[in-house]
Amino acid sequence: MKSKFLTGIAATAMLFTVLALPLFSEDEGSDKGGDAAADDPMKPGPEHAALAKLAGKWDVASKFYDMEGKATDSKGSAEFKVIFDGRYVQQDYKGEMEGTTFTGLEIIGFDRVSKKYTAHWIDSMSTGAVWLTGTSKDAGKTIEFTGKMSDPSSGGEIESRWVHTHKGDDSFVFEMFLKLGDKEVKFMELTYTRKK
Length: 196
Known about the structure:
Layout lengths: L1 H12 L22 H4 L6 H7 L3 E10 L5 E13 L4 E10 L2 E12 L4 E8 L6 E6 L6 E10 L4 E13 L2 E10 L2 E12 L2
Antiparallel strand pairs: 1-2, 1-10, 2-3, 3-4, 4-5, 5-6, 6-7, 7-8, 8-9, 9-10
């Protein structure tokens, strides 16, 4: 039962991987004056320009952790593209989980009104869509997302925390943590490397 629970969570999760990838803005939440588009919260801002840097193809090295903290390695790939005139970035993910082909789709954005990053995730192993919001304390180098996702083992929801850490223009790391009872456990770690 734990294996099915973890597989369901991993699938739903996968990422979000993703969910949010590092938004590498040097001026998060601040507009540089004079530009009418920069002053309009309905138009893309500097956070969106930073997200657009994700566009391209990536190799993904994955680690999935069991309840005892033992990791299983896997590989995948992702492609990011800018959509809706720079307002969002779409991730198409392909990989493998426990010997099964796994695909996921994520939409990442930044809400200039709420000043929060947003991530929507759906995949081929779950009927539950995931919605998270995130903030950054270091100008987008590290983004922490929080939210809830469907828990197939209980029929309810489980709290999840995702951390996206920018390692440079060609690399970032996504970590996913789940709240099991009163304990937070690391569930997965994905390392993205840009394809050359």
